[in-house]
Amino acid sequence: MKQITTDVTLAASVLRDGGVIGLPTETVYGLAARVDHETAIARVFAIKQRPLSHPLIVHASGVEQCDAWGVLSPIAQVLADAFWPGPLTILVHRTSQISDLITGGRNTVALRVPEHVLARQLIQELGVPVVAPSANRFGRVSPTTALHVLRDLGDAVDLILDGGACTIGVESTIIDCTSDTPQLLRPGALTTTHITQVTGIVVSPATGPSRSAGMLEHHYAPQCRVELFENHETAQASLLQVRQSGQRGSIIDYGADTVAYAHRLYHDLRECDNAAIDVALCVLPPPEGLGIAIRDRLLKASSGEKQ
User: Fold this and answer.
1) Counting beta carbons within 10 angstroms of the beta carbon of residue 194, is it exposed (0 to 12), middle (13 to 18) or buried (19 or more)?
2) Fewer CB atoms near the end CB (10 Å): N or C, the chain?
3) How far is the C-alpha of 209 from the C-alpha of 174, rounded, in Å?
């Protein structure tokens, strides 16, 4: 069996038999197992070295596949109708049918319908949703190509479905719809401003403890040290200091082009590690639109330190 394939039927067969695969989406590649196979789900946690208390996101081919696993409130239904398929994850109250492994023992579950054609074809052919956290070791840089998954996880996965490079490049937006006031748990390509413009729904900042993927303070981290800067000039000056100290540094800066920044961010951080760079000096994009999500990922990759 080839480890990397474009054969959706083969990938569905592996999942049907309780396997674990690399799954392309428009955001990042996921590590997928069928939603109703606890042994396979336990393998996902083991492969990622992910804490069992950290819940997983369920990926469906359409909203009709979600009913058995979560209860969409009226607000959640409006968001689903407006933005699925797409880079939006909605946190809702769970049903009794879903495994505690997926929810981390919570009374909620995170649901998403990805936009990637191969992902939805696969889930539809499988006939049930899949869980699909990012296909990398827990806390590390998410993969945006099939080769990234292969390099990170190797023979630990049974198959990798190659859907090309992820078009967005950062994880989905997560909205908590378990109360009358929706809360932003994780920023992504779908901004709260756009949500309000399309639906009239106002999304508030999250309060309280971590309750979904991506809410930990340190996450998305490469092996190299990540330092953050508000402008290129300061980053350039710091790069000279890094080199004078005998270390290797590299600047990551896409200016105000947040689409390119998101698309290339995880690839560039991985390239820093591949090139044995000691310090990645990242210039933060403007704090608006997609730039909010990029800043979130960089702040967590650097443990919040900014120069």
Assistant:
1) middle
2) N
3) 15
pLDDT of residue 70: 98
85-113 per-residue burial string, b: 16 or more CB within 10 A, e: under 16 = bbbbbbbbebeeebbebbbbebebbbbbb
Q: How many structural domains compose the chain? A: 2
Question: Is residue 216 in some structural domain?
Answer: no
pLDDT of the residue at 221: 85
Q: Which of 205, 235, 267 is the last residue of a domain?
A: 205
- The range of the structural domain enclosing residue 257 comes to 225-301
Q: Is residue 307 part of a domain?
A: no
Residues pairing with 31 in the sheet: 22
CATH number, domain with residue 136? 3.90.870.10
Using an 8 Å Cβ cutoff, are 34 and 130 in contact? yes
Helix (H, G, I), strand (E, B) or coil at 249: strand
Kindly report, residue by residue over 119-131, the tens digit of the pLDDT. 999 999 999 999 9
| 36-66 as b/e: b if 16+ CB within 10 A | bbeebbebbbebbebeeebbbbbbbbebebb
Residue 151 lies in a domain: yes
Bridge partners of residue 204, in order along the sequence: 183
Residues of the chain under the 70 pLDDT cut: 1-2, 209-219, 303-307
- Can you tell me the distance from the alpha carbon of 202 to that of 182, in angstroms, rounded to the nearest whole number? 7
Answer yes or no: are the C-beta atoms of 140 and 220 closer than 8 Å. Answer: yes
CA atoms within 13 A on the CB side of 36: 14
